[in-house]
């Protein structure tokens, strides 16, 4: 099946040769073609260019995209999309003055989600999660990472990852799974955290590998959760089993976790609402992708990741939603891109680079998605008639996405 899009107002994120990621000053460049065509064949992008260069060709379908912009779909490299129930009560508690940490100390937060998930069937978890997945795809997400971490027991962690595996089998969108058994210490192990860490290393990881349930391993490296030393042990156990580290770190404190992640060659370090010069020095010269989660900062009222500082030190930056019931009950990557511009002062070019090609890198999928490149998957979206791509982050709170194509199929 061949589909030809013509008269495209502007084709965005066009990369003749596939790049792995963009860093520093490179992030300011967003290659585009005005008045363009785009040719799709089955699942792939096969050609694109200026309308002046379009050769006549037999195709199955021609779509006139006059006035519209076409860009790659968003790459959301950090979500907790599988969860048992929402947590509006904590939302109201925070309005009444409690902090995220105080709620967690009272047994709320992650432990609240874990309690609910342990009593929820795999089927119910799957049904809830697929509704969320369908909604984020309609908003323009074309690749996604989904974590465990609300199970906090062998069976419940496996249950979560089996749900992710079923989503992978039943949906066309590239999905990556992350084992996050080290999300919090379960209440019953509060006085014997070593036993739970041993369980993660000696029971959970082997079973996750045996069932082929995860690509990555994650730890919440933060005061009150896992220390850098514990993080190091768990990441090393995951790496030995073939899992690549992607880590929650520096959300509320800088406790030395960045050095641990870089030393373990983490694919990404995520959150970074707190970042020190020493952390930045650690990241320089590494291949680790810093990932900012601005809708978490928005919802919790905590600082935004200093993206300008990271970029000014010639580092790359990716953007993701952190979609979860506690700190970010939104899977809207369009809002993330808007917040990156409005609150982190990224230019539209930097924010779109961070949410496409750099997000693809943070998913280990930059050779398949994240740019309009011949031979990559036809994962792209068509906007409504808009003035320019600046309108995409400007038009915050809603989205300008009219059609989403995943592997060449209109969703
Ligand atoms: N900080 C750790 N984990 C999630 C929040 C989990 C929750 O509150 O349910 C995050 O990335 O924000
Ligand atoms: Zn998270």
TrEMBL record:
This is Imidazolonepropionase. It comes from Pseudotenacibaculum haliotis. Keywords: Cytoplasm, Histidine metabolism, Hydrolase, Iron, Metal-binding, Zinc. Zn(2+) binds at residues 78, 80, 248, 322. N-formimidoyl-L-glutamate binds at residues 150, 324, 326. InterPro entries: Amidohydro-rel, HutI, Metal-dep_hydrolase_composite, Metal_Hydrolase. Pfam families: Amidohydro_1. Residues 69-408 form the Amidohydrolase-related domain. Belongs to the metallo-dependent hydrolases superfamily. HutI family.
